[in-house]
Design a protein that fits this description.
Layout lengths: L1 H13 L4 H7 L4 H8 L7 H11 L3 H6 L7 H8 L4 H4 L18 E4 L4 H7 L3 H4 L4 E2 L10 E5 L13 E6 L10 E7 L3 E10 H4 L1 E5 L8 E4 L3 E11 L8 H24 L2
Parallel strand pairs: 1-3
Antiparallel strand pairs: 1-2, 3-4, 4-9, 5-6, 5-9, 6-7, 7-8
Helix pairs in contact: 2-3
Length: 267
Amino acid sequence: MGLFGSNIKLLRKRRGRTQDDVAVALEMKRSTLSGYENEVAQPGLEALVAFSRYFNVSIDTLVKTDLSTLAESQLSQLERGYDVFLTGSKLRVLATTVDRENEENIELVSEKAKAGYRAGFADPEFIKVLPTFQMPFLSKQKKYRSFQVSGDSMLPIPDGAWVTCEFVQNWQLIRNRHAYVVHTLDDGVVFKVVENLIRKEGKLRLHSLNPAYEPYDVHVNDVREVWKFVNYISNEMPDPDLPHQELARQVNRLRDDVEALKKGEGR
C-alpha cells in the first residue's frame, strides 16, 4: 500500500488543507494521519473508507494509482468525481431519468432531498426515485434539473421557490454575474450568482442577491456539479421594493420643495 500515503498527501495539498484540517474532518489524531502519509503506519478498512469518502476517490485509486504521474487535466477530473474505478468510464455520465417517450425528465430536488442528493447525485438508483416533470418549451438537447431554494439569500426569489437549471459540463463556460446552482463538497447545493475565477485562481466566487450576505469562494476541487439558472416557479408574489419607492417619493417631495423655494425667491 505504498502509494496510499503519497496519494492522500498529494490530494490534501492540492485542496489546500493542513494535516490538522483533515484529521479533524476524519475524527482522527494528526499523528495518525502523519503516519499514513509518511507510510510508517498502514490504514485499516475503516480508515480507507473514510479517506475515499473525504476525497471522493475510490479506494482502488487511492491504493493502486500513482496520482503524481497523472496529467493536471486527469487530476482535476478525478477531484471532481470523474473516477474510472467509481464510474466505469473516463468521464462521469450524469445520472438521469427518461419518460415513456425516452425523453429526459426534469428531476425535482426538494429541500428535504438535498441531504440525500449531496451523496447520491451520481447514483442512478437515487436519482430515479426523485419526482419528475416536463417543460415542453425547454430544449430537448439539454439536461435540466429543478432545485428548491431555501432561505432569503437570493431574494427576491423567495424561500421555497423551485429553480430550474441546465447542466454545465464545461466549467470554463460559466459566465460572470449569472445565477447557478452549485453543488459543493462542504455546503451541499447552493443557489448563487457566480464569478468565474477558475483560470486565474482555480475557484468560483459565490454572491447572494441579498446584500446582507457576503460573497465567499469555493475551490473547483470542492465543486461537484454546476447548473445554470433558467427559470423559477413560486406560488408567492415577490415583495414590492418599498424602500426604493419611499426613497423616490422623498426625492420628489424634496424637488417640489426646491421648486417652491425658487418661486418664492423670484417674487
